[in-house]
Amino acid sequence: EGPGTLDEGYLFELSLGHIAEALNASVLLVSRFSEPWSVDSILGAQQRLGDRVLGVVFNDVPTEHLDTVQFTIKPALEKRGICIFGIVPHSELLRSVSVAELVRRLNARVISSPERQNLMVESLCIGAMNVNSALEYFRKGHNMAVVTGGDRADLQLAALETSTQCLILTGSVEPRPDIVARAEEMEIPIISVDLDTLSTVEIIEKAFGEVRFHEQVKAQCISQMSSDHIEIERLAAALGLSQEQSSGGPAT
Question: Is residue 40 one of the residues assigned to a domain?
Fold first, then answer.
């Protein structure tokens, strides 16, 4: 794994180009795709690294850009001699955070379904409106952590009827017994924090910004996405590896 950009480490002659030249190594570029003009950086890398560019894997491609990358950008780059070994779509799961991680970061107390702390949270919703607006808001979410006041029983019940992975109650207020019972029935963890809503949200947003990949479900997702969206055999051939070597098997 090299530097994050072509220029990083240039002052000490440890840039990507310097390292590749010193090791006489080829370079596989992994490019996070955000907009079509993201391709300009790849063409710039080809100009600077020349024949050392082995090819490119596009990563984290938004769904709305997949066809553009597949049918417009890939052919255009390959005509310029840049091999595209993979087009990996954006995955909310890979950017998710486990309930257990939120419990740890928030120093929270688990009130219901502690055995379900392995659930993955993909989005954050804040419940601070009337219940009718909240229901409409919550129904748009998917695999949410819902943060609301411990005294907002109406919003808590609304959240439990939608795609909620975790209900986070602020203000150290105990939830009503019927809400705990409903959460247990739905197998949704309720956690209680001593913090106010703003502080709680800031900690959760920081957790989303420091994504980890040690959870088994993420490892399985990465393996499956690599198999589905990266041309492993073509990449192995470009690297001079056999199929067994590229999959971790014995060399032939």
Answer: yes
